[in-house]
């Protein structure tokens, strides 16, 4: 069993080059299926989710190869199947993008239900609603579903709630549908804009991405091209938060500061000093933090994926903080694990109440999902003694090299293989 071991660390100093966005990469890799020529994507991270997408690609005839320069060369010309193995599709969340991306070409997609971070129920009713409006029919089975459309036709879609996944999925389907699609109440996330920019570069006609009204004029053909995925604003945010845990100064390079507005505002409120450059952000902290109240929301509000590392940071801020989760209201699995380190945190309804400044003590903890993992790494840096984190595969879904990056900043962290022998000697069941 892989375990990440974190020791009490001092202030962190240094610079980390931020990987390409996990969430955008998943959309772009699927979107490449819409092309009729080869595509090169720069900056796709080497995370577990990307490895699964490559395996799905192999199964259906979509070649995804890493070049010696680190780019992804994708050849969608020989896709021969739109039947996706349920096990693989359920091994990560956004496998549903293959529905939007393959439906126009194949007329029928068979796929497993979405997996990924299973922290709360995550409905896909808005994906279904949007794709149905374009003419798709859904049939549900025990471990997979089938989506069929003789012909996809543009339509007006008004989303009942703001969802990034459904916005992207319907854009994918509409890009090669017949006629015009208009999306209202669309998500405005940078990852939506990134997907639209990529498709437009291949010849799609999408306008309005980044606003809540998006128009897509379907085209019969998409060419190839080269495109660079946006940097991961969520991973960048968590490294900046790390500067506040024991003090220090951390620079995240290769970021788009404009994507991080609500995060940077929140960190300033807590007492970090933030400096932005063209493509970098630096957080300085003398370790003195202020308690705060924060609510998550859809972009441009404070991201739900930054809620967990922020909660770890707020355990270091003397006083009472309140973190309210508005996107996935029960996304608090990490709180139970923080308590195992001695944090004084409790959850009522959709809020976590944190009494900050209480000393943390190392223990065995489990990362239930990727951001819970980041939260526990940050908490482990402050905890007395050793914190051992299991569930490393969740962390590896999103990070190319979390351990290496934190080590480069001076964190005392390592990845170890926990064997039956040492487990008997020291493992405390969870
Ligand atoms: C792979 C990926 O990109 N994952 C991100 C994506 O997930 P994902 O795309 O799954 O999240 P959504 O933006 O769709 O979810 C936003 C809200 O809409 C609701 N909803 C969503 C779809 C739907 O059909 N019906 C519905 O009610 C969800 O329950 C949630 O309350 O955005 C989330 C919110 O920023 C992030 O936490 C995830 O990291
Ligand atoms: C929720 C997340 O991922 P996914 O949607 O891939 O499960 C996340 O990245 O925090």
UniProtKB/TrEMBL annotation:
Compartments, record wording: Cytoplasm
Active site residues according to the UniProt entry: 117
Top EC category: transferase
Positions bound to phosphoenolpyruvate: 22-23
Binding site for UDP-N-acetyl-alpha-D-glucosamine: 93, 122-126, 305, 327
Enzymatic reactions: phosphoenolpyruvate + UDP-N-acetyl-alpha-D-glucosamine = UDP-N-acetyl-3-O-(1-carboxyvinyl)-alpha-D-glucosamine + phosphate
PROSITE patterns: PROKAR_LIPOPROTEIN (PS51257)
SUPFAM superfamilies from the UniProt entry: EPT/RTPC-like
A single MF term (Gene Ontology): UDP-N-acetylglucosamine 1-carboxyvinyltransferase activity
UniProt domain Enolpyruvate transferase: residue ranges: 7-401
Keyword annotations from UniProtKB, A to Z: Cell cycle, Cell division, Cell shape, Cell wall biogenesis/degradation, Cytoplasm, Peptidoglycan synthesis, Pyruvate, Transferase
Protein name: UDP-N-acetylglucosamine 1-carboxyvinyltransferase
Lineage: Bacteria, Bacillati, Bacillota, Bacilli, Bacillales
Gene: murAB_2
């Amino acid at each position: 069993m892989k375990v990440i071991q974190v020791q009490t660390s001092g202030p962190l100093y240094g610079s980390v080059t931020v990987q390409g966005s996990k969430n955008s990469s998943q959309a772009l890799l699927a979107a490449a299926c819409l092309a009729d020529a080869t595509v090169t994507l720069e900056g796709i991270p080497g995370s577990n989710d990307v490895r699964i997408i490559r395996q799905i690609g192999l199964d259906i005839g979509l070649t995804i190869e890493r070049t010696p320069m680190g780019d992804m060369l994708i050849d969608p010309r020989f896709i021969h199947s739109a039947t996706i193995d349920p096990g693989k599709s359920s091994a990560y969340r956004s496998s549903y993008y293959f529905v939007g991306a393959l439906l126009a070409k194949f007329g029928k997609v068979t796929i497993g239900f979405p997996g990924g971070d299973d922290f709360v129920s995550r409905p896909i009713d808005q994906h279904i609603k949007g794709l149905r409006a374009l003419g798709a029919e859904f049939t549900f089975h025990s471990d997979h579903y089938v989506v069929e459309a003789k012909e996809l036709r543009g339509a007006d879609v008004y989303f009942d709630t703001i969802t990034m996944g459904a916005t992207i999925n319907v854009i994918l389907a509409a890009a090669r549908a017949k006629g015009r699609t208009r999306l209202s109440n669309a998500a405005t996330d940078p990852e939506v804009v990134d997907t639209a920019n990529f498709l437009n570069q291949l010849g799609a006609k999408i306008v309005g991405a980044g606003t809540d009204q998006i128009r897509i004029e379907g085209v019969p053909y998409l060419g190839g091209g080269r495109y660079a995925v946006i940097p991961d604003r969520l991973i960048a945010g968590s490294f900046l938060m790390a500067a506040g845990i024991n003090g220090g100064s951390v620079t995240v390079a290769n970021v788009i500061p404009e994507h991080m507005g609500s995060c940077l505002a929140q960190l300033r409120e807590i007492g970090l000093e933030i400096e932005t450059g063209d493509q970098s952000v630096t957080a300085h902290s003398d370790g003195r933090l202020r308690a705060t109240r924060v609510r998550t929301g859809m972009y441009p509000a404070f991201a739900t994926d930054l809620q967990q590392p922020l909660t770890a940071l707020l355990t270091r801020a003397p006083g009472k903080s309140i973190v309210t989760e508005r996107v996935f209201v029960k996304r608090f699995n990490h709180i139970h694990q923080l308590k195992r380190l001695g944090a004084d945190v409790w959850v009522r309804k959709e809020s976590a109440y944190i009494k900050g400044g209480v000393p943390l003590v190392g223990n065995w903890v489990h990362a239930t999902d990727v951001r819970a993992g980041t939260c526990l790494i940050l908490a482990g840096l402050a905890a007395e003694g050793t914190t051992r984190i299991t569930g490393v595969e969740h962390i590896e879904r999103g990070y190319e090299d979390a351990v290496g990056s934190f080590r480069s900043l001076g964190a005392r962290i390592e990845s170890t293989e926990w064997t039956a022998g040492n487990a008997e000697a020291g493992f405390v069941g969870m």
